[in-house]
Known about the structure:
It contains 37 helices and no strands. The chain is mainly α and 774 residues long. Helix 6 (107-122) runs parallel beside helix 8, helix 16 packs parallel to helix 18 (359-374) and helix 35 packs antiparallel against helix 36.
Amino acid sequence: MSRKTLLALAAGLVLAAPIQAQNIEWKTLNQEVLSLYQQGKYAQAQIVAEQALSLARTLKGNRSLEVATLHGNLGLVLRAEGKFAEAEEQLKRCLSIRESALGSEHPDVAAALNNLGELYISLNQLTLAERHFKRALAIRERKNGGNHPAVAQLLHNLGALYDIRNQNALAEPLYRRALSIREREFGEASVEAQATEFNLATLLEQTGRYSAAEASYARIVETLDKTLGPQHPRLVPVLAGWGAFKLRRGEFEAAESRLQRARNIAESRLGNPHPDAALVLNTLAQLRQAQGKMLEAETLMRQTLSAHEALYGDRHLAVASSAANLASLRREQGRYDEAVALARRAMSIQEAVLGARHPVVARTLNNLAQTYAAQNAFDKAEAGFREANLILEQGLGADSPQLLGNLNDLGRLYERAEQYDKAEAQYLRALKLWETANKAEHPAVAALRADLGTLMIAQKRFDEADKQLKLALQTREKILVPDHPLIADSLHRLGRLQAAQGKPEEAIATFQRALAINEKNFGVNHEKLLPDLNALVANQQALKKLAEVEALQIRVVTLQEQRLGPTHPEVMTLVAALAATEEEQNKLAEAEALQRRVLVYREKTFGMDHVRVAESLYTVATLNQKMHRGKEAESYYLRAQATWEKTVGPEHNTLAAVQLALGDLRREAGKPAEAEPFYQRALAIWEKNTPESSHVATVLNNLGVIRSAQAKYADAEPFYTRALKIKERTLGPQHPSLAVVLDNLAIVYGQTNRAALANQTSARAKAIRDLSKS
Length: 774
């Protein structure tokens, strides 16, 4: 149901004409209906309205004008409850009686036509609504002239209809004419004038005139403050609407202040529950969700749902809307089964009340499809998006922002499934539909261009991606506040393009801009910062700026610990990556402590005899070895060896790596004879599995070193020679690692009286080193 339409209902109920004393009881009942309606107590109002109607029928007859009025009032109450089929029956009876009694040109017939038109807007039967409004307007203008308050009501409602259709050029002059009449007849602070100005403000926002929209909201509040006082209940829906405007603009602090003021007034001046109070809670919940404060958002959404259930029962459209909002939150929280159940509950209500082809149903169906997409249920998601899009196109037209958003969602589904041609077709179709309507500067279009640009990055169409992403950013910068999260989104996407183009310096600057915006909006310890932080890690690593990488990784680990807990698998992966950065900076103690944390986690998670545990044992051992803590290193290596022998067998390459490391420990401790058996076992495993690998060359070189240390140069030479040939074949003749083997071989040549060959070999080693430095 449209927000614009609801604002016109406050004056909908009417009292019957003055009546005789014997009829005082049903007149009193009718007054009570009006009071209950204004308090938002619709279920109670219905009971009283039915009592009044029954009594009036007995006293006045079924076709009296008094009974017609009561039929109309009951119809409006039923409509407020979301009982649209019953409401239509009552409103049609009111119209029928009045036409029979008064003729087709009477102002009271026009009032009945208007009420039916409002109901048909709720049902999205816009052509039927337009027919009723136009007929009523013609009657009013002929009977009352063009400046009558009743004419203003019809101008307002007809404007709302065109507004819903996105026919802004038709809607705006109707709103302005209605506003002029209402301000003159009722005053600027009247319910009627401000309902119209509120609708006009939303239209100004939709057409990109944000300053004018802001001025309208401010004017309404200022007028109410002066005329009714700063605590008047009529401020509540206006402040809620202004807060929603600020939220859409990304001005979270401004939205907060307006919504909290509305909440304070509602709590002190309105009953609990009350429709306007529930409206405030719902908008506050959306703000918390946008801020990433999911627990607070959940609490507020549950309060809204409870309020709507208490007000209307469990089958009202407001209840469905609350359930759909909570479903969206559940999806964002990753609680998919609950999200599906809530969305289906919402759709069940909406289809029963509005029919299966109503745009409101399409919104919830799209919500459900997004949940299926998050669950990787591609077929269900695709079917849901397609059906929702068909409903919207039939109901709102091909250029509605809502349809464009849904087309975009379907495009994202195809992109996620790497069906890039289908994704691009969706994006381009939506862009063409919008641009044909000459509406180029709208958030929906910027979102389309952003997604299209991201798709083109995946396809390495960098020039095209650059064009689309910059157009998206330009649009967002023009129509949004400078620190809006969507501007950060555009900057992040541009950073991804720059990184893909091999421009890490530019990418870092762009990601830092995005991060600064998100930090301002969400704080410095929020999970929404993770994409920017991770992107900065990758690009700083590309530049080998290890200190910057370390600081960023620490932030990422801290955030993920807060979000997932200190022993979550994703956190452990990040801890291991941080350890690698610490090791690369030669911060060996820090790296070793982090890797031991990973080891403890793996032991608890997988048990002691698991390959992942052996990997951690080996990593911790290497760090201890680098720190010259031989005993600790050997202990970890031996544990890794025992685990790998149990899990992968005694001839796996991992066992060779352990043997090499244990041999190095013995050799570094000055025990070459003890080292050789480990080297020999490593050599046997690698020669069997990967005879031409650089690992074989490494072991051969180390065996040569042992022989040289024992002055067994003739034995050492074949090891060096074989090692050199393998490295030349596998790594190329100029690889830096050849220099070590060449130096060792030159020593052997020198010790065996081959000076010329020794000099030649040394010179080659030096040339390789010089080349690697250049």
